[in-house]
Structure prediction request, 1206 residues.
Amino acid sequence: PTLLLTYVPKENNFPRSFFKLAGSLVNITSLLAVQPKSKKTLTKSGVKNIVVVEGVRIPFLQSGTSYADLMPHDLARAALQGLLNRTSVPREVVDYIVYGTVIQEVKTSNVAREAALGAGFSDKTPAHTVTMACISSNQAMTTGVGMIAAGQCDVVVAGGVELMSDVPIRHSRKMRKTMLTLNRAKTLGQKLSLLSKIRPDYFAPELPAVAEFSTSETMGHSADRLAAAFAVSRLEQDEYALRSHTLAKKAQDGGLLLDVVPFKVPGKDTVTKDNGIRPSSMEQMGKLKPAFVKPYGTVTAANSSFLTDGASAVLLMSEEKALAMGYKPKAYLRDFVYVSQDPKDQLLLGPTYATPKVLEKAGLTMADIDVFEFHEAFAGQILANLKAMDSDWFAQNYMGRKSKVGAPPLEKFNTWGGSLSLGHPFAATGCRLVMTTAHSLKKEGGQYGLVAACAAGGLPKCVLGP
Amino acid sequence: MSCGGMWCRGELCRVGLRVKLPCLLGSWFMVLICCFQVNTLSKQLSSEFTDIMNEIWANEAVKSAVLISSKPGSFIAGADLDMIEACKTSQEVAQLSQEGQKMLEKIEQSPKPVVAAISGSCLGGGLELAIACHYRIATKEKKTVLATPEVLLGLLPGAGGTQRLPKMVGLPAAFDIMLTGRNIRADRAKKMGLVDQLVDPLGPGVKSPEARTIEYLEEVAIDFARGLANRTVSAKRSKGLMQKLTDYAMAVPFVRQQVYKTVENKVRKQTKGLYPAPLKIIETVKAGLDQGHDAGYLAESQNFGQLAVTKESKALLGLYRGQVYCKKNKFGTPQQEVKTLAVLGAGLMGAGIAQVSVDKGLKTILKDTAQQGLDRGQQQVFKGLNSKVKKKSLTSFERDSILSNLTGQLDYKGFEKADMVIEAVFEDINIKHKVLKEVEAVIPAHCVFASNTSALPISQIAAVSKRPEKVIGMHYFSPVDRMQLLEIITTDKTSQDTAASAVAVGLKQGKIVIVVKDGPGFYTTRCLGPMLAEVVRVLQEGTDPKKIDAISTAFGFPVGAATLIDEVGVDVATHVAEDLGKAFGERFGGGSIELFKLMVEKGFLGRKAGKGFYIYQEGVKNRSVNSGMDEILARFKLPAKPEVCTDEDIQMRLVTRFVNEAAMCLQEGILSSPVEGDIGAVFGLGFPPCLGGPFRYVDSYGAKQLVDKLRKYEAVYGSQFTPCQLLLDYANNPSKKFHQ
Prediction:
């Protein structure tokens, strides 16, 4: 998803920025079809301004580290509590909670509700869970935007959680069938006869699919092919990954990652910072073998995002409500668009498609954007997107455009690191991108920010922030 | 050769080859890229290639080479067949083979590693070239197939293939590849050890997916070529345990002999000794493994030469060329492309037609009158596609997505959007008329109405049409998804555009299409009629069904004549025989149709009823003769005529009647060419492929000899054996041939 954040009017000293969500949401396009009247505010007539009051995340950790023994709702709870603490928003004010998650823990399938109850939100606040691969929390946020815009709610909490340390592993279909039939077996004889049918292969477990359902291709394999399609070299990918880690380290050391809230893990020390940031050297990265396309591919463990645990949450309000409550919004969520394309060859090209669309919708150009935050699934995927955005051929042949939109300038692009270095807990990444954009716009004195991400199933989207 | 940029190439162009010498800022890449610009191995290409190879070996700067093709869709699709056909003697062909062997041996022995980069068809000589290289990299695409189809042309791999393949993939797998000639997909080839690396096809980048995929293949191949030259990559493949065990076992002469024997027996059983090529392949492989390198190569070239001049090879080659001819639309491009197809009747045929349409991307409406029939039909389509999923030639996602093209329904909803309607309802003229009228009330003006009938004349069906120019016959063969032939029937009123549309749909469905004129039984059914009448006659004369089957399969028919009747259905056969009998009179006489009628009465309808000449039981392979037939056969028993009742005479009685009728079709203009007649007979009716079809058979057997046979039987049985005028003309003029 792409998120575009807009500006802070200096005249009333009221730090404000706008952001915009870009992505591929077919169903709500009509809702947001109203064109902005003036480029300055992007306010839409008849549609409420929607703001991000605050957003937090617990530190993103590599799977199997400090969060390993927790459950997903524990992480979500920590993020929600962090949001409550940071904003001091009275819990009865929150009208609705939407949470995103990708790999569902079956015990807490509506993880939004379980986490909200545990985090001390009112039991009168309804909550639901959404899923849309790596842009699940973007989906949570835009769902919130839709509810506020439709006048259903004034205050919505949106977020996302992912716990890759523990994923549901199922019994095989045959075994499940036997076990379910066993429930209905009445006599001992029936039960024994069912049990006697169990064969060793029944015990083979079923792992959650790491591959795209429609193509059976893993994301890493797809990224390797994408990099090859755009002739992105191994060297370029390693360089980009190194840049991500280096910038993330700088941002972390400089205290720029303001959205991180500490998390006291039960039975363990308080976690205060992301633990996946590891600037290495080109030489060391060069030693790694390809992880997916063997032996000659270019995507390696070092230039891909790693398995991550984490959760994030943002507080969305209508502008009137926020101002009435005395909040200084961090960003205006201005617009968004979801797009989708061929899940085989263009799985990870969403940002390329979504960016020009959301800009055109908002009446902006690439030059108006001060901060770009793109989700970094793979270094090769980012570089392929940049090349695609910079190619007239691609724009003409695949996007139905007359000319390219142009690649974002790197000095405005993921300047505080990205998913490659900070980590990528699938459903929690969207909120991180939005908050990084908001904080970055404020620091740089920028006006518009644009957030973009790609997701499995070929659905990318854009969000924009303060 | 200048070096301007990062990636510039010195190029050297010839007619069939382009050589690129990439260099990197002054320092030479040590890899030479040799790019084929044609897709067949011709004499010219061979000599150019040899020149370039010589240069490679002479040039110190070149350390390795990559062979790739610039023709999209093929690496090398085989040797130039014209080149082989132009040879007059087996020695000449053997000479060609030896030249090929030498060229490839030179590559194999090259001290500089040569990498074959394969995208698209790598067939015959192309595969032999690839396996002579030191390393093979193939794109993992549907269009990338490896095969040695020589056996299907009555030949053998004549450029070292019979010698290299067994060493490469093991003896059993090598026999399988060479004796079946089947296509091997890239991923399977990797598993067999036929290729060393796979390259996934790429999506769009800043170039088209196809162009970039080839470029990427070349890049990867260059990497490996350099790796091989500086020994960071080993061409030695780690064999699996099974392969090691097999190789070990095959090294024992006794085991090898057993394998030869088993394979040979199997081949003899399947070919009935009618096809010399498979046995020669076994012999050649044997020579190489048992008597060494030189004997093997010598046997290969000699046998190749011998096979190339056999009449079997000429017949098969003729069929191959005929097939190519029948894959073209001689009516041109139709004005409106068919995108939505409606099929009426969800029976075996209707569902089969739907199945071969949906997977080619045609939106297909399958309409029946009853839910039960519709369900069965839809299940048939699903089952057909699902079997491909099981064989892994389709993913379950692709299956589902293909099935979304199919709409099953009981009404005429959506017919206003249909571009073509194919009816496959019951073979009854009244029902056909009713359906035609109903359909014409709902379809748009441009929509073609095609009738899938095996015998009802199309003009009769079209008689009630408001727009007879849009009515055409499309005769599919059962099972539709397996039988390659489609017989299209045009009436005097059928427009050119309607014909173009029907042929285009047939070709899209993957069919080999022949177009014939309307008439009772068209071409295929009409040829079959007299032969089946003769089968009945032979049965009446006391030859039992098993014996008839044995005699006809020995002649080369893939299915025995009695079994064929069971497969077609005795009721259908009766129906057709009656109709054709009325139309053609005595020429369709011979056997008594009452025999069929009695069989129908008793419920002996053939396979579909479980009983016909044989008893059919689910899961039972060796079917037994239906003893209920004894009484029927006894009732119609006629005295046999000893002078025309040897096995050979019986064969000739069946075949001459078939051929005579085929010639009659050509004479009457039902057929427009002998090529289509041969293709229709072989692919639709199972006429022995080794004979190449009825017309080629006349050429090779001799029209005069054939007419003599007909006269002999005519003297015994009467006018059903009277040779037609066209055959007489050919018999009177020995220089006249159907195929020049």
Chain A has 14 helices and 15 strands. The two ends of chain A are 16 Å apart (CA to CA).
